[in-house]
Amino acid sequence: MSEVKGKQSLRFAKTPFILNSASVVGKKEGEGPLGEYFDVIGNDDKFGCESWEEAESTLQKEAATLALGKSGLTPEEIRYIFAGDLLGQTIATSFGLLDFEIPLFGVYGACSTAGESMSLGAMCVAAGFAENVLTITSSHFASAEKQFRFPLEYGNQRPMSATWTVTGSGAYVLSTQRTHVKISGITTGKIVDYGIHDSLNMGAAMAPAAADTIAAHFADFGSKPEEYDRIITGDLGTVGQEILFDLLKKKGYDIENNHSDCGIEIFDAKEQDTDAGGSGCGCSASVLSAYYLPKIISGEWKKVLFVPTGALLSTVSYNEGKNVPGIAHGVMLEYVP
């Protein structure tokens, strides 16, 4: 039996494994510091499509196809897909995965969707409801700007606190088949609202949720920061990272020595003009697959806490003057000899 830990966490008895994964990103992401690690880099951010939304659907389709191929599986061998994106009614997912004809759970946790989809997929495998599931998330800079902020043609000035939505997708095959990486537990986040109103400061909106989930994880599992080779947040950027450190120190935890943020790693902020860093569903999903997961597979890292973070706003809520609450979901990854 899997074990309920504390108020927000689960430890899996029948451990789900990450059979394989894939990452597909856009041109700007490929020109960044992690360019050599991604599986596929597009030369055109429209990926040969007529619209940004169609391009994002193509990102998911390509990532899913590649993850299945690397796993040696056919679509018929996948029981369920857990997938989502940033667009209204998750249309990137709906149109991108239509042709696979696999039962689909569409999920939305904003930029935390990679953690949410992996958590749900892991629960499904651990409970014995599937031998193989596929989890996928994506985002696209242009489609996100068009929906949440301003069309690119507007040419608005971006503040230094802004993060750049990653054009990318990450897909993971979770399985009962033994590999070198297992999902040993999860910590499901709560909605946290610190009264942030600025839609161009996602780091400030999401950092409180990240701090809440990380602290809950430590409390539920009775663990300490130094027990983890890396604590990886998804999309905080440089602004959110500093807030996260301060909030966790107030809770009695110091993670400065072993913290990384996918949004900081994926871009060279000075050379690529991305201000505070990267964000978006595809940020943490692609960076974990391409850059961090191989470190666990090789045994360089033995234990990692992966915490994608999301800002729960819409154009409707923002235009009506609502706050920007955040959420973060923790996934504990461990090396298997």
From TrEMBL:
A GO molecular function held by the record: acyltransferase activity
Which superkingdom heads the taxonomic lineage of this protein's source? Bacteria
Cross-referenced NCBIfam families, in alphabetical order? PRK08304.1, spore_V_AD
Report the protein name in the record.
Stage V sporulation protein AD
Q: Which organism is it from?
A: Roseburia amylophila
Instruction: Give the taxonomic lineage as stored in the record.
Output: Bacteria, Bacillati, Bacillota, Clostridia, Lachnospirales
Recorded name of the encoding gene: spoVAD
